[in-house]
Amino acid sequence: MPNTPRGEVTSVRGTDGGTPNGAADVPSFASDVAARHERVDATAWDRIVVVGDVHGCYDELLDLLDLLDPGEDDLLVFVGDLIRKGPDSRAVVELVRDSPNMRAVRGNNEQKYVDDRVACPALAPVTEYIESLPIVLSWDGAAVVHGGVDPRRPLSEQSVDGLLNARAVPPENGYDGPFWFETYRGPPRVFFGHTVLDAPVVGEWAVGLDTGCVYGGELTAYDCSVDETRSVRARETYRKRADRKILDPDGSEIDTRD
């Protein structure tokens, strides 16, 4: 990973698989998650912006970057699923990999690629980077994962599979809900993708940013410094998706603010 001009990303795995000595504010995860947990120093950046699922929509990512106009001292963190379904996954990965102020966590589609469950020959030159992606990236008070967390369990009992794929509670309910972010009350505040939303979910403890760009929706980012979302429309619909698998936060009466 390229060096950064301001902040460094570091592994925070402690000797017990949890937090290192003297880092009480760092979330404590199970050992397999902790081994793939990276930490950023939020004070090293002017602002942190979290970006939803890109799914290979390179042109829309460029449109969003034009809208956000990030400086070299602004950190962009992607919630995973940089790849698959859209037109140019490799270009998306190369842009994130080669930008010193961009980071990403692993999504379920990156996991499928790493596990050889899907074939993406065009991604061969960026395989090493994809394999290096963490499951969790955090800073004080916040954590970024792809799927979410199980609100029934402490962070120390969250599984890798759950963090990548969380949606309903229980998981087998899929898009029928109820959804993990309806009852999760933190801390930390969790930024996530994976669940395709008609509009962003912005709550005190959960922020959902997959607004279905690859399905003809929007590519959405959340600017932590001003507590607001910014979005660009998809240039076209690259993949069809059943309406029941695009969640309407208003229609489902989701309110994650206390």
Automatic annotation (TrEMBL):
> Domain of life here?
Archaea
Q: Give the region (Disordered) as residue ranges.
A: 1-27
InterPro entries hit by this protein:
Ap4A_hydrolase (IPR050126), Calcineurin-like_PHP (IPR004843), Metallo-depent_PP-like (IPR029052)
Where's the Calcineurin-like phosphoesterase domain? 47-198
Checking Gene3D superfamilies in the record gives:
3.60.21.10
The record, for PANTHER family, names:
METALLOPHOSPHOESTERASE (PTHR42850), ZINC-DEPENDENT ENDOPOLYPHOSPHATASE (PTHR42850:SF4)
Listed name of the protein: Metallophosphoesterase
Organism of provenance: Halomarina halobia
